[in-house]
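Dear colleague,

Thank you for sharing your sequence with our group. We've completed the structure prediction you requested, and as agreed, I am returning the results in plain text so they can be pasted directly into your records. Please verify that the sequence below matches your submission; if there's any discrepancy, let me know and we will rerun it promptly.
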Amino acid sequence: AFMKQRRMGLNDFIQKIANNSYACKHPEVQSILKISQPQEPELMNANPSPPPSPSQQINLGPSSNPHAKPSDFHFLKVIGKGSFGK
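Please find the predicted structure tokens below.
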């Protein structure tokens, strides 16, 4: 029960950081989360890659979400539990 609460707390903490644009701009947060800023401000508004052509699109069924956000993921399920210092 204790470890489950710790995992949920860690997941909530990562979600809050990922959704806070001010925190994501902090150099230490970027280095920990391996976030890189665009070289030019115009790149933030531009789409970095063109949308895939219909032949490149993959049907993911009803769960398909082309605009995923960090809050759409449970990070501990994505990255695993790890050893937590064992």
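Summary note from our side: Residues 1-36 form one domain.

Kind regards,
the structure core
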